[in-house]
Design a protein that fits this description.
The chain is built from 20 helices and 21 strands. By secondary structure, it is an alpha+beta fold. The strands form six sheets. Strands 2-1-7-6-3 form a five-stranded antiparallel β-sheet, with helices on both faces. Helix 6 runs antiparallel to helix 7 and helix 14 packs antiparallel against helix 15. It is elongated, with a radius of gyration of 45 Å.
C-alpha cells in the first residue's frame, strides 16, 4: 500500500490527503451533530413530559378532591346528622346508597363514633365490624375531613363487595426488564379514599362517613390524563402518549398497550425505575422501557396518609418519533455534506493545477539540463515559494552554464595540461554543481520553513481529535500520545526559533506590573505541577511602568514554570517586587527551593538551545527569549544560585519610561 501511494502523482496525493482530512472532519461533525440534535430533541421531550406529569398529578389530585368533597358535603347534611342521632339506619342506608350510585363511588360506609360499621351501602349484611384501625377513619374521628390513597387488602374488599375484590385481583404478568418478584398474583387494591366526621350540634363526632373508588382496572383517570395532555395524538398508528397508575410496581390502571393491543394491566415497571421511585422515593425523568417499547418517561411516587410509598404515577411519550426526526435531520445533513465534499474535490482538482504545473515545468527543465541543455529556463511568474524556487533554479542553470563555458575556454587554451588537470577540473565541476544545488536547496528550505507550523498544527489538532475518540484501553492510545507529544515539541522548537530570530517589537502601554505577575500565576498555578507548591507573594507599592504586558507575562511564566520544574512540583516559590527609586528600577525576584544550577551551566544559561532537561523535555529557548524581551525593555535579568539550595532570578525594569510617558 505504501509503495503504491509513493508511485501516485503529486496531484493525486494532494487530493487524497485533503479528502482524508475532509472525511475525518465530516465524520467528527456528523458524530457531534447527531449527539447535539438528539440531545436537543430528547431534552425538549423530557421537559414536556415533566410538565405532563404535573398535569397528571393535577388530574389525580382533582379526582381525590372530588371524592373528598362528596364525602364532606354528604357528612355535613342536616338530615344525615339527625338520622344518625336518631338511629334511623334504614333511612341512612337508602340515602347513602343513592349518593354512592349518583356520584359513582365504589364504596360509601358509615361508622359510629368508635369506628364500628353501621352501614355498608354496597354490602348491608357486612355491618358491625371495627374500622377504627383505618388511618383515615381514625383521623376523621379527631375532626375534619381527610383524604388520600390507600392499599386495601382483599378481606376488606370482600366486606364491601365480592365484585370489588374480583376487580382488584389480577395475575402478575412477565415483563421485560422488570425486577424479580416471587408473587404471581395481586389480590389487594389501591383506592382513592376520603373520610369525614358527622358532627353533632355541639361539635362532638357522632359518626364517620368514608367513601372511595377502586383504581384497579378503573381507566377514568389515565384516559382523562391522556386526552388532556396528548389529545389522542398518534405516530404511525401508535398512540404517542400514555399514562399509568401503579400499585407498588404493578400496572393496575393504564392505557399502555401490549402486543395484542390490549391494556397492559398486570405488567410491571422496569427494575431501574422501581429502584429509583419505590426504593429511594425519587422522581424518574428519563428514557425507560415500557412493556414492549422505549418511551421518554416521567414517574413519581404515590404516598398513603402515613407517607408510605404505595405506588407510582406515570406519563410517557413514545421515543421513536424523536429518533426518526433525528435520523431524518442527520440524513439530510449527510446528503448536503456529500455534495459539499464533491464540490470541494472538483475545486481542489483545478486549484492544485496552480501548484503542479510549475513543478512539472521544473521536472522537464531538469531533464533538459540532464541532457546538456543549460540554456533551458523555467517560466514561472508567481511570487510564492515555487516562484522563488524557479528563480533559484534558473540562477543555478545560469551559473552552471557560465562555469561550463569557463571550463571549455580553459580546455581550449590549456590543451597540453588537459591530461594533468582532468581530475582536478572534474572535481571542481562537481564541487560547483554541489555548491549551487546546496545554495538552491538552502533558499528553498528558507522559504518553506515558514510553512512548517501549519502542517504541524494540523497534525497536532487531528491527533488530539483521534486521541479523544478512541477508547482509553485501545493499544493505539500510547502511539497517539507520542505523536501529540513529539509534534508539540517540534511546533515549540520552530515557534521558539522564529521568536528568537525575529522577536516582535513590544507594544508599550502603562501597566501595573504586579497585576501582570498575578495573571501569569493564575494561568500556570492550575497545572498539576503546582499542586504541592506553596506560592508566597510580597509586593511593595509599585509605580506603573510603560511595558508590553503580554511579553512580560511570557517572561514571568517561563521563570515560574522553570522554578516549578526545578522543585519537581514540591517546594516554596517566593515572589517579591519592590521599587528602587535611587537606581530607577523596579526589581522582581523569583526565589525557588529547587535543586539549583551548576556553576558550569550558569555561563550558558541564556544561550539558545541550551537546556539541562532530558531530551524531548524542553527546547532551550525559554530563557533566551525571556532575556531578549527584557533587554528590549531596557532591563536586565540576574541569576543567583547554589546547587541543592535553590535559585533566585531577578528582573530589573527601568522606571524612567513612566516619567517619559507622563
Amino acid at each position: 500500500m505504501t509503495i503504491r501511494f509513493k508511485q501516485l502523482s503529486l496531484r493525486t496525493k494532494l487530493i487524497l490527503t485533503f479528502l482524508v482530512i475532509i472525511v475525518i472532519g465530516g465524520l467528527l461533525s456528523l458524530i457531534v451533530g447527531y449527539r447535539l440534535v438528539k440531545g436537543t430533541l430528547i431534552g425538549q421531550a423530557q421537559n414536556k413530559v415533566t410538565h405532563d406529569l404535573s398535569s397528571a398529578r393535577l388530574v389525580f389530585t382533582e379526582k381525590l378532591n372530588d371524592i373528598r368533597n362528596i364525602v364532606s358535603l354528604t357528612a355535613a347534611r342536616e338530615g344525615i346528622r339527625e338520622a344518625v342521632a336518631g338511629g334511623r339506619i334504614d333511612i341512612l342506608q337508602k340515602y347513602l346508597n343513592r349518593v354512592r350510585t349518583q356520584y359513582g363511588l365504589d364504596i360509601l360506609t358509615l361508622t359510629d363514633s368508635r369506628g364500628k360499621v353501621l352501614i355498608r351501602t354496597r354490602h348491608p349484611e357486612a355491618a358491625g365490624d371495627d374500622e377504627s384501625g383505618d388511618m383515615l377513619v381514625r383521623q376523621a374521628l379527631s375532626g375534619g375531613v381527610h383524604a388520600g390513597s390507600q392499599v386495601v387488602l382483599r378481606p376488606e374488599l370482600l366486606k364491601e363487595s365480592r365484585a370489588l375484590a374480583d376487580q382488584a385481583y389480577m395475575k402478575i404478568l412477565p415483563t421485560p426488564m422488570a425486577a424479580a418478584r416471587p408473587e404471581t398474583v395481586e389480590t389487594s387494591g389501591m383506592m382513592l379514599k376520603a373520610a369525614a366526621a358527622v358532627l353533632a350540634e355541639d361539635g362532638r363526632p357522632l359518626a364517620v362517613l368514608y367513601g372511595g373508588i377502586l383504581l384497579n382496572r378503573n381507566y377514568e383517570i389515565v384516559d382523562k390524563i391522556k386526552e388532556l395532555v396528548f389529545k389522542g395524538e398518534k405516530y404511525k398508528g401508535v398512540e404517542i402518549g400514555t399514562a399509568t397508575i401503579f400499585q407498588n410496581d404493578l400496572r393496575i390502571s393504564t392505557n399502555v398497550k401490549n402486543r395484542n393491543g390490549e391494556r397492559a394491566v398486570g405488567t410491571r415497571v422496569s427494575g431501574e425505575v422501581r429502584e429509583a421511585v419505590l426504593a429511594k422515593g425519587q422522581p424518574w425523568i428519563a428514557r425507560a422501557f415500557v412493556v414492549n417499547d422505549w418511551y421518554i418517561t416521567a414517574y413519581e411516587p404515590i404516598f398513603d396518609p402515613e407517607e408510605t410509598i404505595i405506588g407510582i404515577l406515570y406519563v410517557g411519550m413514545l421515543e421513536k418519533p424523536y429518533l426518526d426526526t433525528t435520523n431524518r435531520v442527520m440524513l439530510a445533513f449527510c446528503l448536503l455534506a456529500g455534495l459539499f465534499v464533491l464540490f470541494l474535490l472538483v475545486m481542489l482538482y483545478f486549484s492544485t493545477g496552480r501548484i503542479i504545473n510549475p513543478l512539472q515545468q521544473m521536472v522537464v527543465a531538469t531533464q533538459e539540463i540532464a541532457r546538456g541543455d543549460l540554456s533551458h529556463k523555467v517560466e514561472v511568474h508567481s511570487r510564492d515559494e515555487i516562484g522563488r524556487l524557479a528563480d533559484s533554479f534558473n540562477r543555478m542553470t545560469d551559473n552552471l552554464k557560465a562555469a561550463n563555458e569557463k571550463l571549455v575556454d580553459w580546455t581550449r587554451t590549456l590543451e597540453k595540461k588537459v591530461e594533468e588537470r582532468t581530475y582536478e577540473l572534474r572535481e571542481m565541476q562537481a564541487h560547483l554543481v554541489r555548491s549551487e544545488k546546496l545554495a538552491s536547496l538552502g533558499k528553498l528550505a528558507a522559504g518553506i520553513a515558514h510553512e512548517i507550523n501549519n502542517p504541524l498544527g494540523g497534525i497536532l489538532i487531528y491527533s488530539h481529535l483521534i486521541l479523544e475518540d478512541i477508547p482509553k484501553d485501545s493499544p493505539q492510545q500510547e502511539n497517539l500520545k507520542k505523536i501529540v507529544k513529539e509534534t508539540t515539541r517540534c511546533k515549540d522548537i520552530v515557534k521558539g526559533l522564529l521568536e528568537f530570530a525575529r522577536p516582535k517589537e513590544p507594544e508599550m502601554t502603562l501597566t501595573d506590573i504586579a497585576e501582570v505577575v498575578k495573571r501569569a500565576l493564575d494561568i500556570v498555578e492550575r497545572q498539576a505541577l503546582f499542586q504541592n507548591i506553596i506560592i508566597r507573594q510580597d509586593y511593595a507599592r509599585l509605580p506603573k511602568l510603560v511595558v508590553d504586558a503580554g511579553q512580560l507575562q511570557q517572561v514571568f511564566m517561563n521563570i515560574i514554570l522553570n522554578a516549578a520544574e526545578a522543585m519537581a512540583g514540591c517546594g516554596t516559590l517566593t515572589i517579591r517586587a519592590a521599587a528602587d527609586e535611587a537606581a530607577g528600577f523596579v526589581c522582581l525576584e523569583f526565589t525557588d527551593t529547587g535543586h539549583g544550577i551548576k556553576p558550569e551551566d550558569m555561563k550558558r544559561l541564556f544561550e539558545p538551545f541550551f537546556t539541562t532537561k532530558e531530551v524531548g523535555q524542553g527546547t532551550g529557548l525559554g530563557l533566551a527569549i525571556s532575556y531578549s524581551i527584557v533587554q528590549k525593555h531596557g532591563g536586565n535579568i540576574q541569576v543567583r544560585s547554589e546547587p541543592g539550595k535553590g535559585s533566585t532570578f531577578t528582573i530589573l525594569l527601568p522606571m524612567k519610561q513612566e516619567k517619559a510617558s507622563e
